[in-house]
Design a protein that fits this description.
2 domains, 5 helices, 4 strands, globular
Amino acid sequence: MNSYQLPVIKNLLETTDLHTILRLPTGLFYKQGVKANVIFFDARPAAKKPWTKEIWIYDYRTNVHHTLKKNPMQFEDSQEFIECYNPKNRHERKETWSEVNPDGRWRKFSYDEVTGRDKTNLDIFWLKDKSLADLDNLPDPDVLAQEIVENLEAGSESFRSLLNWLGEK
């Protein structure tokens, strides 16, 4: 996260009711390694106090692997999120995460918890990445190598875009 994003995020939290973030698997829309989130918010008029009181986050990123061609995300994959989101009455949501269920993907964070994070970072995670914890069941070396190459290519492309953007300034 760049330092110029901090005011943008704080402004978003203060001028809207940012109520939901859906963390999507990396590479879902672009290349492997590129993160994507869907944010849900309601615009509000200017006020003295921030509109955002709590943010619900559904982590569909951790321990989920989709690709554009071989394993694309299907509508059925979003069913649990839709149920948790509770579009009929979002004020009656219930967390699936708890101390008893640390693998629950649906969790609520207060405004203070979010703004108290370093640089008000919205990339919040709590689920353990099983691929990192289970060293006996790592993917085959060729799969790991391919993922590394894809991540490096995505990073290189991001740096090229940044360089082009800086050249335009």
